[in-house]
């Protein structure tokens, strides 16, 4: 009960985010209470740090890369191109925007897709005088696909990195399993969003009001470096994955290289366009504190019996066959993520799966189902992921307010079919390549 109380109070403060405290300090305070009361000990600190450090610093590096590219106009340039490809027809543009979000989520993580693409698309649509209902449909689409399309690569979601590191899944093996599964998730996402919002999508929009994509480029040096750097980074992930090199080292090196280009380090900063001080200040440093703090609190909850309960449920599901193990694991962790946040739920799921004594194939299905459930499950509620909470906050600052009631109403309709179809795709695909 003590461990549960500490977790609930910590989660309340993380969601509430009192001024000056932030998610990181709130989680760290919860961890300090857990340590002081004996819910966790100092040995657990080392265990948790070993689990989260690589994922956490990879995430920070990816967001730094995303912020620099955003300041340089990269994402605005891409959005303007896609909106032109829509040829003035709203029903053509809607799936194109979803696909753009899917690509950004794959390479820049779900947070990058939700927090950077959504305001850009919303601003352009408002400039084109798209009706409020249509703007809402595109806004929800951007936020929804950011998570549902964050399956394909290890770096596409913090959840993926934590899980891959915990179970020793290599970058290429993970991609071989999840790229096809992610394809199903994206198609299902387009389908459910279309069915839900087809009446709200504008029939047409005025292309003549749209500026040229090249006008969005603020830093041409960064823009020219973007595609070669991203291609090199992707190749490096596959190569270094075979060597066991931490992903944070590779992503961090790419972030430093882009910082050098943006800051014109070779000329002492002369000609720099991007404000690197602001970029580094806006980087999610609080996530470092949050990761160690919240995971410690959850680890204490696991020590108090949650992991044992979860492993019992998963053992029962595994006994019912691979289909039940796959779909059941995904649904259970999705429900858990929707009420306790997907990052803690990922750790609970991983610890529980690690205790289950099942056949290797069943275990692999449950490992990847844990990823699917924690990537897609947060879409049920706003508290399911920090990205969603920040996304809602960013939208409110842009004048687009989405209440928790509105969000849940949409989330409970859109999430189940995408989740189930994606888990079914995993169940069918993984045995074929194993």
Instruction: Tell me what portion of residues adopts beta-strand conformation.
Output: under 5%
Mean model confidence by pLDDT: 90
- Kindly provide the radius of gyration, computed on alpha-carbon positions and rounded to a whole number of angstroms: 21 Å
Distinct helical segment count: 17
The outline comes out as globular
Low-confidence stretches: none
The helix-strand sequence is HHHHHHHHHHHHHHHHH
| Number of individual domains | 1
Quick one: how many beta strands?
A: 0
User: Structural class from helices and strands?
Assistant: mainly alpha
Show the helix and strand layout:
Blueprint: H1 2-16, H2 22-36, H3 42-72, H4 74-85, H5 90-127, H6 132-148, H7 158-167, H8 171-197, H9 220-243, H10 247-263, H11 276-282, H12 286-319, H13 322-340, H14 342-355, H15 360-376, H16 386-397, H17 404-429
Helix pairs in contact: 1-2, 1-12, 2-12, 3-5, 3-7, 3-10, 3-11, 3-12, 4-5, 5-6, 5-8, 5-16, 6-8, 7-14, 7-15, 8-17, 9-10, 12-13, 12-14, 13-14, 13-15, 13-17, 14-15, 15-17
Family: Belongs to the ArsB family.
Transmembrane segments: 55-80, 92-109, 115-138, 150-168, 174-197, 217-239, 245-266, 287-306, 326-353, 407-430
Main location: membrane
């Amino acid at each position: 009960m003590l461990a549960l109380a500490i977790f609930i109070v910590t989660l309340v403060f993380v969601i509430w985010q009192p001024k000056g405290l932030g998610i990181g300090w709130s989680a760290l305070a919860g961890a300090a209470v857990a340590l002081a009361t004996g819910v966790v000990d100092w040995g657990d600190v080392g265990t948790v740090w070993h689990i989260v450090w690589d994922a956490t610093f990879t995430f920070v590096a990816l967001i730094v890369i995303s912020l620099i590219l955003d300041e340089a106009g990269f994402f605005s340039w891409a959005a303007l191109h896609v909106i032109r490809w829509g040829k003035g027809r709203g029903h053509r543009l809607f799936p194109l925007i979803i696909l753009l979000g899917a690509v950004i989520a794959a390479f820049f993580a779900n947070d990058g897709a939700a927090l950077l693409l959504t305001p850009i698309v919303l601003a352009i649509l408002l400039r084109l005088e798209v009706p409020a209902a249509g703007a809402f449909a595109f806004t929800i689409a951007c936020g929804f696909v950011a998570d549902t399309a964050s399956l394909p690569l290890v770096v596409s979601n913090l959840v993926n990195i934590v899980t891959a590191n915990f179970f020793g899944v290599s970058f290429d093996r993970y991609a071989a399993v999840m790229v096809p599964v992610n394809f199903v998730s994206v198609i299902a996402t387009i389908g459910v969003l279309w069915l839900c919002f087809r009446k709200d999508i504008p029939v047409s929009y005025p292309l003549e009001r749209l500026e040229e994509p090249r006008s969005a480029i603020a830093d041409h040096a960064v823009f020219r470096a973007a595609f070669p750097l991203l291609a090199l980074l992707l190749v490096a992930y596959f190569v270094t994955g075979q060597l066991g090199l931490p992903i944070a080292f590779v992503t961090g090196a790419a972030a430093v290289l882009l910082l050098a280009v943006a800051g014109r380090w070779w000329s002492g900063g002369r000609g720099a366009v991007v404000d690197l001080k602001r970029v580094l200040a806006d980087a999610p440093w609080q996530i470092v504190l949050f990761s160690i703090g919240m995971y410690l609190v959850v680890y204490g909850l696991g020590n108090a019996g949650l992991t044992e309960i979860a492993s019992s449920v998963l053992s029962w599901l595994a006994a019912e066959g691979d289909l039940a193990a796959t779909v059941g694991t995904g649904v259970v962790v999705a429900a858990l993520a929707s009420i306790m946040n997907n990052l803690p739920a990922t750790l609970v799921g991983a610890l529980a799966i690690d205790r289950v004594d099942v056949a290797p194939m069943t275990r692999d299905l449950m490992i990847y189902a844990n990823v699917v459930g924690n990537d897609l499950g947060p879409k049920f509620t706003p508290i399911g992921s920090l990205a969603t909470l920040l996304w809602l906050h960013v939208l409110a600052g842009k004048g687009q307010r989405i209440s928790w009631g509105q969000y849940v109403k949409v989330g409970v309709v859109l999430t189940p079919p995408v989740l189930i179809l994606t888990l079914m795709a995993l169940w069918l695909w993984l045995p074929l390549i194993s």
